[in-house]
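Before surveying the methods themselves, let us examine one representative protein, written as a sequence plus integers encoding its fold.
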Amino acid sequence: MSNPVVLVHGFLDTGYTPWWSLLRRNLRREGYDDGDIYTVNAETVPGLTVRSPRKYAEKVRAAVEAAYDDGGEVDVIAHSMGGLKTRWYVEEMDGDEIVDSVVTLSTPHQGTRTSGLAAFTKGARDMLPSSKFLKQLNVDGLAEGVDYTAVWSKNDYAVYPNGRGCLPTDWTERYEARNVRAGPYGHLEMVGRRSVFEKYRTFL
């Protein structure tokens, strides 16, 4: 039996947008029931998810704990800023006790200069490479005992400079973690593309 899975959206997004429906379809093709798939909705309307990932980590906690209560240890698939929300929960709020694996899609683990275009929002400022949020998140590395997969694309210009969606190389050597390069896909394509899903499905 597969672990329950929690889907976590990113900046400006919600779990209601079409690309998440495609990912849920991919999961169902793998044998997941609808009851095994949980979705975080940080806000109810696209365009409003602009607060700090630290604030939204409580939403991740609520979804993961609900999934755990229903089915045991949890896998998380998180896109963009959703990966930072998830990491904050796992690494700073003891989420590692019930999360088995984390897959991030186009998450700016090392920051992205592109977020400067929306620097009037706290969420975007926290994704800048020099942000206090990222320095605090990254100072202690990853959580022991959690399997991490960072999926990234060279064609994802929302995470810039190229490669910022990867985990640092020394982390992949120190922890149970890996970087997986997807095909030539843009930022939102990373969620719904079947070919991207094939790159990480075995790590769930």
